[in-house]
Every structure is written in C-alpha cells, then in structure tokens.
Here is the input.
Amino acid sequence: DVKVTQSSRYLVKRTGEKVFLECVQDMDHENMFWYRQDPGLGLRLIYFSYDVKMKEKGDIPEGYSVSREKKERFSLILESASTNQTSMYLCASSPGQGGSPLHFGNGTRLTVT
Amino acid sequence: DQQVKQNSPSLSVQEGRISILNCDYTNSMFDYFLWYKKYPAEGPTFLISISSIKDKNEDGRFTVFLNKSAKHLSLHIVPSQPGDSAVYFCAAIITTEGASKLTFGTGTRLQVTL
Here is the structure.
C-alpha cells in the first residue's frame, strides 16, 4: 500500500518566517505534488515534480518554492510566511502514467500568525 | 477561473437512499475524471474514475456517469451508509499532459443520516 508521509500534522509559524514542509513517499513514484485546501476553494495545485530536480509551477505558485533532491522526497518552502498562507497543505504522489490516481498524505495544517 | 465546479457545497441523504453528487467542467480537453473522498484530518482517497471514452463506470455501491456533451459528471452512491459521510471532490486530468496534474472541484460535503 502506498504511503505518503508528511512530517508535521500541525505547524504554527510567525509572519516572515521561512517554513519547510516535508513529504516522503515509499512507492518509487515519479510524480509528486503539493496542493493547498481552503474552504470553498477546493484543492489548488501549488507545484509539482515529475522527476528528481525537476519542478513545474501549478496554479498558485506565488510565495512558494519546492525542492526535490531525491525521488522519494518533495519539500515545499514558504520563503517568508504570510497570514494568507494559513491553510491545509496536502502532498501527493503518483506513478508516471497520465491518469494514474494520486495518493495523498494526511496533510499539514499550517497557521501563520 | 474554476474549470471544475461542484455547485452544491453540501448534501444530506437518509441512510439507504441514493446520494447523487454532481460536477461540471468547462475545459473540453479533460479526458479522464476521478472522484476522491476526504474525511476530516485525513488526505483525500481515490474512489472511482472514468475515461472520456466511456459514459459509465461502476464499482460496488459507487457509479460514475459522464455526459461529455453537457460537460457533466455525477457520482451515485447506492445505498448510502453513515460511513459515506465525507467531503467528495471531483477532479479532471488532461492525460496527454503526462504528470497526472489533477484539477479539483470545490467539494461537496455529504451527510448520511440515520
């Protein structure tokens, strides 16, 4: 069974802090994704990666960056956290074929004060 | 620009009856559709999918219908059970773009009552 693990369930950070959200998957999947979930807005794609050291912007990349140095690990970085980045962050992975379902982690609820 | 829309934010259904969740899309390039279910404090889990070459896919109590001309899909749950109470997201992909980049709807919260 695919396991996607997000390192923190809850995080509280201050405005202006640099924040790292970590995600690890154990199924050797090529693709990894970061989404955020907000009430009334559903899940929105921030960044994704289809290979090590490769990254692509999603629909809302502003204020975020990512790092994928190893196949199993995909990090989301908030360079300078702001209150409008308070959200539920969801990491996902999938095999390389288009149309394969995503497997999600349990999410990190980030609060920026 | 919301390319995948779920116009009902919530739905309440009695146990044993049918639940029908609806989803509309605007991008005619979408060729694969999925439904995910999400419980509080958990990540979404894949439920059922359908390719644009089909108009129906069934898996146990769950059936997804696709009407390409109307750009509409629906998820039917029969019979509904209390454990089905969750938020349901529909999602769409353009498979030729490769990396399973899903576009999600805003979700419908289903409450199955006793």
Notes: Chain B has no helices and eleven strands. Chain B touches chain A through 30 residues (CB under 8 Å).
